[in-house]
Fold this sequence. Notes:
By secondary structure, the chain is mostly beta strands. It contains six helices and 23 strands. The chain has helices at 3-16, 33-38, 77-81, 127-135, 313-322, 424-428, and strands at residues 50-63, 88-97, 100-105, 108-125, 142-171, 175-206, 209-214, 218-225, 248-260, 266-282, 288-294, 302-303, 326-332, 336-339, 343-353, 356-365, 380-388, 392-395, 398-401, 405-408, 410-414, 417-421, 433-444. A hairpin with a 2-residue loop joins strand 3 and strand 4. Mean pLDDT is 86; it is low at 1-19.
Amino acid sequence: MKKTLLILSLLVGFSASAQDQFSGISTTNRVGILNGAINPAEFANLSKKFEINFYGLSFDVSNNKIGFNDLTSNTNLEDLIFTGTESANLRIDGQILGPSFAMKWRKWGFGITTKANIKFDVVDVDTSLGNAIFNNNLTLNNTFLNQTGNQRLSGTCYGEVGLSVARKIYENDKHKFDAGITLKFLFPGSYSNFGFSSLSGSIIKDASGTFLTTDQPANLNIAYSGNLADSFSNFDDYTKSVFGGLNGVATDIGFNYQWKDAKDKYKIKAGLAIRNIGSMTFKDDNNYNTNYTLSIPSSNPLDLSLFENINNLSEVEDVLFDNNYLDINNQNKTDFRVNLPTLLTMYADFKIVSKVFVTGYLQQKMNNDDGNDQITARNIFSVTPRVNLGFFEAFLPVSTDDISGTNVGFGFRLAGFYLGSNSIFTSLADGKQANFYTGYRLAFL
């Protein structure tokens, strides 16, 4: 597994910045398409009768090892990501919100949205194993491995088109209830996964090199489809085929409650949604999905230097096959299904005084990240103070997630244009997350 995969991912992520998509602007009381992406019931609360989204871009990278200041240090990034004893985790999430339209009519709200999603993940990789493969800088000694979980390198590109409908269910002078649903049509583009679980063995470093042996058979999954079959170290391969054919559906379901004030605005608005209930099937001529048993005896240890110039998963497989380390459990070269990250989303927006609000937001993933057929997600909690003057709005998101810890950002909206970061202040203070988002939409009538 080539060093450039990890290094390129980190550099692209930090240079473009990143965290949960469109934090702060997506829960504002200026309700639009971004709110509907968090909870489809919000389409019934549109601030204007019509809204057109021209573009939205969000890019996020989170990790548990490398701080922003490390980018200017003399230490190699691949040395830093595999420091300590805690498993290495890295999440890169990019989202492009394309041309979209929303409208409200009487008690109803409707939306048509387009999105492109790009993800790359390093999941629970043992630091000793990572050091041995990427850096070859272990001391002359034996390092024992005992990882019961599934260590993964995974990349995913897919597009989606969403059709949303929401309706006001009940309203009086004090209370208002809404419900909504979004049906997403999924267009899988490319996918790759390298996952190995139940790895128990030793890394042996001596004068002749660095070698791996196993005490018992480990489980290995190699899967790829689309452009990521040819290379997983070139970022361009993640963007060439974001939209494939229509091969999947998913659903968002949401509910919304408002406690209204005398001016028919709200004192408190609360929402609950379950998002991304569904999966997609990758279909491509070069599809490959195989489960193996990996056995590396001490009499024939695996020379880890063989992975130094590898560009794709097929080459990894060739190395292991050529040395008789693999036994096929099952093989499927045709279609295979990948599950979306189902999320439970809850939030509450409180009006403190006129034009000043505070939002609490919780995102809880409902799937484990270690499944070879699972797209990952993060658990996130944030609190966002906000000042809304109508034409101008500013917000200060303070968040914590299960990968990078606590982050503090800033963002603003000027009419339909918005720009922000969930982590600008903590990034400059050596935080482990970087984020950037921007976009423009037009609401009228």
